[in-house]
């Protein structure tokens, strides 16, 4: 048990209370271009110089920069001429647009879309449904219609998902040896970052991205180079349309969008289409079996509540869904990163 001193200390409560303030500092610094400016400058800059180049107020900029220093996103050196700011290695790697591992796009998606849905978390908990109607005026009955309510919003979402796979993709694809599977379908493959990682890790494979027609159009135009001949596209709705035969089907962050009945429906279609000896790879953030953590996955599950029809699940829950569809030899691998891997065989 904690000590009396622990119980009397409000510090942890204030840390939790201030969590949303921390998020907004990060989102605002990204949106204003603080990290990009400091990378491009090649040298530390004063808050006045940063404010002048960004077109922001000197007093507001100084406070934002100091908060970023406190969050270890910036470093500051105080000289006789004043304070000079520069990026940390983490900021250069993950928060600048030009970095191959940039998380800028997912930050902007969280800031402009997810954050607004979370404003109605209390309503979501009361009602048990997503909050697109309150946040954006879109029907909650079609979560992806709401997510893709404009081409701009679709671009933000797809770019954000791609940025996640830039740092997690190879880990989930290498969790199992997928080299025996030559023809792979990436169901709901979106912007194609995971498909591109897959043909990089397994150069003898081909990957077909199966997604809605408007998603495929955007992926071709913005994200997947035309010279990438190992990646092809299939337009369709995998709940309504047929799923072609393949050796392996990847469902990355797909099942967590849907309730158990929809998951069973989709997995049954995948099992029917799958070649004998083939399989399905689920990529999801896994809860502990007793649902005691990890905290990130618990928070993701709440995010599924405010944005989709689904939830995050335990390995046993995914195992049950796969077995109900007819898959066997189910293996689970935790990667130690944001997302884990589950492989089922036919």
Shape: globular
User: Would you count the extended β strands for me?
Assistant: 10
Q: What is the N-to-C order of secondary-structure elements (H for helix, E for strand)?
A: HHHHEHHEEHHHHHHEHEHEEHEHHEE
> Helix proportion of residues, in percent?
40-55%
Chain-averaged pLDDT: 95
Give the structural class.
Answer: alpha/beta
- Unreliable segments of 5+ consecutive residues: none
Gyration radius from CA atoms, angstroms = 22 Å
Strand order of the largest sheet: 6-5-4-7-8-10-9
User: Beta-strand percentage?
Assistant: 15-25%
Individual helix count: 17
Largest sheet: 7 strands, mixed
Gap between N and C termini: 48 Å
Account of the 3D structure:
The chain is of the alpha/beta class. It is built from 17 helices and 10 strands. The strands form 2 sheets. Strands 6-5-4-7-8-10-9 form a 7-stranded mixed sheet, sandwiched between helices. Helix 12 (151-173) crosses helix 14 (213-223). The chain is globular, with a radius of gyration of 22 Å. The model has no long low-confidence stretch (mean pLDDT 95).
Short overview:
Helix content is 50%, strand content 17%. It is α/β, with parallel strands linked by helices.
Topology:
Elements: H1 4-8, H2 11-17, H3 19-32, H4 34-41, E1 45-46, H5 47-54, H6 58-70, E2 74-79, E3 82-87, H7 89-94, H8 104-118, H9 121-127, H10 132-136, H11 143-147, H12 151-173, E4 183-187, H13 193-201, E5 206-211, H14 213-223, E6 231-235, E7 246-252, H15 260-273, E8 274-284, H16 295-307, H17 315-325, E9 328-333, E10 340-345
Parallel strand pairs: 4-5, 4-7, 5-6, 7-8
Antiparallel strand pairs: 1-3, 2-3, 8-10, 9-10
Helix pairs in contact: 3-6, 3-8, 5-6, 8-12, 12-13, 12-14, 15-17
């Amino acid at each position: 048990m904690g000590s009396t001193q622990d119980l009397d200390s409000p510090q942890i409560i204030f840390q939790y209370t201030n969590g949303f303030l921390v998020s907004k500092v990060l989102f605002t610094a990204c949106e204003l271009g603080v990290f990009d400016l400091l990378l491009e400058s090649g040298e530390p800059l004063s808050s006045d110089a940063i404010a002048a180049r960004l077109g922001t107020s000197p007093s507001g900029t100084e406070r934002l920069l100091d908060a970023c220093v406190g969050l270890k996103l910036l470093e500051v050196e105080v000289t006789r001429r004043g304070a000079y700011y520069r990026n940390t290695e983490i900021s250069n790697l993950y928060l600048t647009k030009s970095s191959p591992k940039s998380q800028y796009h997912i930050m902007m998606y969280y800031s402009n879309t997810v954050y607004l849905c979370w404003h109605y978390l209390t309503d979501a908990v009361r009602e048990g449904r997503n909050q697109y109607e309150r946040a954006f005026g879109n029907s909650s009955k079609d979560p992806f219609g709401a997510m893709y309510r404009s081409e701009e919003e679709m671009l933000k979402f797809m770019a954000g998902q791609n940025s996640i796979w830039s740092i997690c993709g190879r880990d989930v694809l290498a969790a199992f040896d997928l080299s025996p599977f030559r023809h792979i379908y990436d169901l709901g493959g979106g912007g194609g970052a995971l498909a591109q990682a897959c043909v990089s890790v397994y150069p003898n494979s081909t990957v077909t991205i199966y997604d809605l027609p408007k998603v495929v159009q955007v992926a071709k135009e913005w994200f997947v180079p035309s010279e990438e001949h190992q990646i092809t596209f299939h337009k369709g709705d995998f709940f309504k349309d047929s799923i072609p035969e393949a050796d392996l089907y990847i469902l990355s962050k797909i099942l967590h969008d849907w309730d158990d009945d929809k998951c069973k429906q989709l997995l049954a279609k995948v099992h029917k289409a799958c070649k004998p000896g083939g399989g399905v790879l689920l990529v999801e953030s896994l809860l502990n079996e007793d649902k005691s953590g990890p905290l990130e996955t618990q928070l993701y599950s709440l995010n599924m509540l405010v944005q989709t029809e689904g939830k995050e699940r335990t390995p046993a829950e995914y195992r049950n869904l796969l077995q109900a569809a007819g898959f066997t030899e189910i293996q689970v691998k935790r990667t130690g990163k944001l997302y884990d891997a589950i492989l089922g065989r036919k």
